[in-house]
User: Which sequence fits this backbone?
């Protein structure tokens, strides 16, 4: 199709270059332009078969450009977390968080670059979801590093960030998973009132995004409203969710152990470039090639897996709290009109530049056209080492042990002391079990 | 504007603005430098000084002197960070300890970690030091009061602007009977305006 569109163009090219070879050269160079981003995208998809440790080793061999450094640190930090190297994960993710905070302000030079060359001239400043998700991973890194107080700092920062990003007509940057992790950390620190508020926010966001409210969230809302003595609310939840007295008694029984089980499933989809290259017609003759490239998320049918916790005779499965693919698409959708406007404006600007150059010298016009076509590429950068799905299950039990199972994790037993609180995390791409047991403060 | 001119301006801007490297300037440790608006060394030192001055000017101090005839012995316990920032509470504790000791009004004893190390050393002296130079076990001074507290924050955010409100609550608790003999509070409010533009 492209060839048919550009028939007759060869008359405009210098005699020593055939149009076919021009196209081949252009396409070859184009494929080389975003090689780093493509390599990172391939590495993220390789997580479905390779371990996070192996992918981390490969990712660390890539030297990122300065403007991609926040994204690089986000991806490195995620893999360090999944490899259970918490101090390194904290360092990398904190660096990314600080870099994104600096880049939050609009850059004059980068905007000029983006307006004239392409969108990747901008530094990666993070999508709204990234700005919140980084606190999620930092909170979990601190928690599994036995520092719940610092984890609390991160969830407060996530809350501030979500308030900063709030918009009337969009849920962009509002994460149910952030509220859920906040609720879990508040429960560990015996701040049940704050935990209840966080569970409520998580439930509101899930409902707003059409995610079915999981049984665990329903039980948490009911359980905490009872524990805090908010009895009218307790009665309302009990009847609304159809929860029996027996269930509540079991959940609030003294000396029961509590398990807050988070599961990361799969790997989030990477962005792809969608581009068209068409010839423009000027003064009734073939004039120049115009290329427009936009980022998009491919449609991927994903099988959602779960992790399981065996409690006595019962098998409890994790349920989805947040579909990370959905929120990534939400972020792109919110940004799309601005990207489209910038891309079309840039195409007009590039067209003018080629025309002006061509007036002076046809060869200069040709070289300028090659440059404008080659430089046009979509910004396909995204934090793509994240899980595709964040899931959760809550267990309250009098048993003295439970067993955890996940895709790559062989059955692992966890001993429970009466009245203890545990946070467990598994990932479908890792064979590791993440475990934090609450330490009772002496104060 | 012609496109070629715009491209030239872009390149010049990138070159000029991108040329600014890192610069380091030594400043006096007492100088107030606010970069991000976060809790910093100045906040820590000023809060410690103000609160210790307040604590030592309150009635509990005179009452203790009258009742026992000697200066109270104080220890600083845990100061919990409940703020939205990663605050190193150890440096704040060190500032409080310094203010208490330098006041000359109270006796001050080492915290649990330091005591453990000193006891180990004393145990070693028992075995290895000469009789004349050995520090005997069981001669420690027990604290009369423990200072504890927490740092809280309230953040109001609008776009790139923030109002940060810090509240530091400290209390002095009698070791003998858990009485709270002093409660102090220090508030700091900061308006942080972040630039909407960068180079």
Assistant:
């Amino acid at each position: 199709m492209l060839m048919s569109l550009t028939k007759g163009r060869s008359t405009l090219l210098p005699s020593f270059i055939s149009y076919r070879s021009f196209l081949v050269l252009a396409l070859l160079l184009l494929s080389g332009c975003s090689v780093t981003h493509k390599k990172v995208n391939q590495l993220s998809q390789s997580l479905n078969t390779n371990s996070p440790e192996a992918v981390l080793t490969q990712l660390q061999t890539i030297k990122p450009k300065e403007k991609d450094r926040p994204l690089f640190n986000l991806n490195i930090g995620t893999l360090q977390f999944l490899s259970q190297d918490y101090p390194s994960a904290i360092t990398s993710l904190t660096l990314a968080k600080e870099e994104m905070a600096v880049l939050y302000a609009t850059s004059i030079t980068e905007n000029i670059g983006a307006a004239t060359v392409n969108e990747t001239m901008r530094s990666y400043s993070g999508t709204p979801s990234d700005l919140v998700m980084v606190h999620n991973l930092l909170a979990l890194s601190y928690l599994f590093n036995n520092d719940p107080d610092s984890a609390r700092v991160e969830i407060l920062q996530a809350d501030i960030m979500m308030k900063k990003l709030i918009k009337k007509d969009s849920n962009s940057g509002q994460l149910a998973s952030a509220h859920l992790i906040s609720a879990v950390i508040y429960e560990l620190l015996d701040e049940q009132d704050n935990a209840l508020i966080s569970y409520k926010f998580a439930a509101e966001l899930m409902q707003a995004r059409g995610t079915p409210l999981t049984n665990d969230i329903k039980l948490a809302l009911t359980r905490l409203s009872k524990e805090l003595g908010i009895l009218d609310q307790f009665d309302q939840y009990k009847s609304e969710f159809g929860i029996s007295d027996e269930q509540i008694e079991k959940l609030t029984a003294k000396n029961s152990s509590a398990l807050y089980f988070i599961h990361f499933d799969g790997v989030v989809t990477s962005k792809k470039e969608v581009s068209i290259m068409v010839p423009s017609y000027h003064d009734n003759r073939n004039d120049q090639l115009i290329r427009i490239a936009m980022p998009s998320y491919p449609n991927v049918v994903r099988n959602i897996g779960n992790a399981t916790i065996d409690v006595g005779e019962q098998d409890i499965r994790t349920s989805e709290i947040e579909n990370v693919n959905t929120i990534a698409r939400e972020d792109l959708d919110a940004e799309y009109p601005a990207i489209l406007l910038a891309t079309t404006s840039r195409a007009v600007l590039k067209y003018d530049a080629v025309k002006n150059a061509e007036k002076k010298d046809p060869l200069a016009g040709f070289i300028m056209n090659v440059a404008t076509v080659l430089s046009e590429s979509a910004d396909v950068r995204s934090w793509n080492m994240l899980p595709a799905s964040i899931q959760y299950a809550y267990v309250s039990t009098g048993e003295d042990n439970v067993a955890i199972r996940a895709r790559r994790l062989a059955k692992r037993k966890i001993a429970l002391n009466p009245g203890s609180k545990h946070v467990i995390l598994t990932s479908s791409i890792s064979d590791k079990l993440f475990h934090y047991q609450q330490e009772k403060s002496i104060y | 504007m012609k496109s070629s001119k715009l491209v030239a301006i872009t390149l010049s801007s990138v070159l000029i603005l991108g040329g600014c490297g890192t610069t380091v300037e030594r400043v006096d440790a007492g100088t107030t430098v606010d970069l991000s608006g976060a809790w910093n060394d100045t906040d820590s030192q000023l809060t410690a000084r103000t609160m210790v001055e307040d604590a030592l000017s309150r009635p509990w101090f005179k009452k203790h002197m009258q009742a026992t005839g000697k200066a109270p012995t104080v220890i600083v316990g845990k100061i919990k960070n409940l703020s939205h920032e990663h605050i190193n509470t150890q440096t704040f504790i060190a500032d409080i300890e310094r203010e208490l000791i330098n006041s000359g009004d109270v006796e001050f004893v080492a915290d649990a970690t330091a005591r453990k190390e000193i006891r180990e050393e004393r145990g070693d002296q028992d075995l290895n030091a000469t009789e004349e130079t050995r520090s005997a076990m069981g001669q420690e001074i027990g604290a009369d009061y423990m200072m504890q507290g927490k740092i809280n924050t309230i953040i109001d955010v609008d776009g790139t602007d923030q109002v940060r409100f810090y509240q530091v609550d400290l209390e002095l608790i009698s070791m003998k009977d858990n009485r709270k003999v002093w409660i102090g509070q220090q508030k700091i409010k900061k308006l942080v305006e972040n630039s909407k533009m960068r180079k």
Observations:
- The longest strand of chain B covers residues 145-158.
- Chain B has a mean pLDDT of 87.
- The domain at 39-110+142-193 of chain B is CATH 3.40.50.10610 (Rossmann fold).
